[in-house]
Design brief:
This protein is of the alpha+beta class. The protein is built from four helices and 19 strands. The longest helix is centred in the N-terminal third of the chain and has 15 residues, at about 75-90. The protein starts with a strand and ends in a 6-residue tail after the last strand.
Length: about 280
């Protein structure tokens, strides 16, 4: 494999190496994905994104998501906005459909250069998370350190959201990896700690499975609002403040979750063949 062009993008600091693989069948091994994502010896990113030809008739592009550990992820809201913007610019349209292994996602250009993505319906049943045993996902019996009784939601990937009084007082780097691989989560889980600021504003930090702490997690923000609404803590539309900035999330009446936020390109380049060997 020769030099491979890429674009470095981010959504509120949640950063991605984006590769256009539509011209040729680009198949990267887990080892190659880890090499690219390595922040010391590779390019560095929270997720590696490969844009592929769509498989579904309605889709404009297929988005494949790889975590820094080389594993494949089912959803990434911030990356979806990045890919959607690229494809909208390419096609000269303000609406596109992005396909993922978890389904089709509608994306639209929004005011102020923002991008909105319909992340699909929130899945709330314990089988859909999935959990290892039957349990009420509104109050899951799970305690690790100061974190207890999360709300579990599937937004194309599994999330456990813990409500706390001060997110910055939680050692997420300590408890995140333990909870991610807890036996209750057979497919592992993204771990969020959320603080209610008001009925329309929340503070959130997320430990992403396979990636660690990130500056923003779009699907985590969606899961957090759904969790807060289910517990009667917020309105159905609210601002979610993450380490990298603010996302606007709305849980629509039809069960779908709408996420709106910014995207940016940091730089473009070519990765050397040695990185892919």
């Amino acid at each position: 494999m020769g030099a491979l062009s890429f674009r470095k993008m981010h959504g509120l600091g949640n950063d991605f190496v984006v590769i256009d693989g539509r011209a040729s069948d680009l198949s990267l091994s887990p080892e190659q994905a880890r090499a690219i994502a390595d922040r010391r010896t590779g390019i560095g990113c929270d997720q590696l994104i490969v844009i592929e030809k769509p498989k579904a008739k309605l889709a404009d592009a297929f988005m494949r998501i790889r975590n820094p550990d080389g594993g494949e992820a089912g959803a990434c809201g911030n990356a979806t906005r990045c890919v959607a913007q690229l494809v909208m610019n390419e096609l000269g349209r303000d609406h596109v459909i992005v396909e993922t292994i978890s389904g089709l996602l509608d994306a639209n250009a929004a005011e102020g250069g923002l991008v909105s993505v319909d992340m699909g319906p929130a899945r709330l049943d314990w089988r859909e998370i999935p959990l290892a045993e039957p349990m009420d996902t509104l109050c899951v019996k799970l305690t690790v350190g100061p974190l207890a009784d999360p709300v579990c939601t599937n937004m194309g990937n599994p999330h456990a959201t813990f409500f706390v009084s001060d997110v910055d007082a939680i050692a997420l780097e300590e408890f995140g990896p333990v909870l991610e691989r807890h036996k209750l989560f057979p497919e592992r889980a993204n771990i969020g700690v959320a603080q209610i600021v008001s009925r329309t504003r929340l503070r959130l930090r997320v430990w992403e499975r396979g990636a660690g702490i990130t500056r923003a997690c779009g699907s985590g923000a969606c899961a957090t609002l759904v969790a807060a609404v289910r517990r009667g803590l917020t309105e159905r539309k609210a601002e979610i403040v993450v380490d990298g900035g603010t996302l606007t999330i709305e849980w629509l009446a039809d069960g779908h979750v709408l996420m709106t936020g910014p995207v940016a390109t940091s730089f473009t380049g070519e990765m050397p063949a040695a990185l892919l060997s």
